[in-house]
Sequence to fold (150 residues):
Amino acid sequence: MSSILEFLWLFCAAWWIFTIFILWRPKLKKLSETSELSTNDILLFQKNIALAITIPCILLQIMQFFGGYKLPIFLLEGKPISIWGVASYGITFISWGLLLFWIWMKSGAEYLSKFAPILNIPKNPRAIKYLIILFLLIVAASGIIKIFSN
Fold:
């Protein structure tokens, strides 16, 4: 019998698609009525967020299947680390790098500030930048603690 953890990355992608296109719909509609954002702006936001979240999830699920791993945190399994573990680190760091580049070097924080009521984040772009860095530092620290606790 398969464990739900074998398909966690697919469930994660499906959950975010459901959240973005179904659960956020009323809030996004209200936002379009009370702000300068058009329906096309909101649709583009939904598509971009969905792609940014689901592509890494799907890639990690593919690697989990091809690597023959039962758990979604397969990058920490095995000695020595497999090519699938290295690739998962690559996807993770590339995703983080792209996020940081978009937030800090492009106008990502300003763009996200327009959708602050939906994302439950501050409207201040500078606060968004530091919030993203804080989040990534917490995630990185938890990963480092996990690696060295084995």
Summary: The chain has one domain: 4-149. The mean pLDDT is 87.
